[in-house]
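quick one, 194 residues, struct below
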Amino acid sequence: MDMFYKLTAELKKAVIQLEQVDLLADTDTKRSELLKRCEDVLKYSGYKVVNPFIDINVKEFKSNKELLILFNLYKAKYYGSSFIVSTGNKYIDEKHISNFVKSRQEINSCSASTARKECAMIISTIFENLDSFKFDRVCEPYMLGQKKCAWITQKAVDIIDKKYKEHLKREFNKLELAAKPYYSDEDFGLLGDY
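---
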């Protein structure tokens, strides 16, 4: 059998595995397997495969400097590389990021590590939704959770919350569909509105 057909057969198998509803299955493992199979097919076909821009879901930010790097990467991606230099003083930008992390720590009573992850999600959300923020200037570190700009952080948190609620609703609907053959409509009526 030709190697290409073998790789596509493995890809098809991974797609089928991902689509199967299994309440106990680890969907992250299935998703990783599917992505690996896609990558194998593309590489065999001569394509160069590079990792995504950044995956903040798995990234552990060990310092506030790493958050500033993340901020500047997003800034370069969405505004162009000529906007990377912020105030011209990296110490001032680091201080703004440090204050942002401290404020999230105080608000949520969490560790610095957890606060940095939350800050990364907020930074990501701001840049991925720039149109909804309607900034009249380039987004800078001083705008993160500070005084008059606190609305920016709050709006980003609201967007994150909304997306999370939508995700939970989709997951609940999947579970409901998987369980439906085993229960009557009256049983589901007992759940009420969700």
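The CA atoms of residues 15 and 34 lie 6 Å apart.
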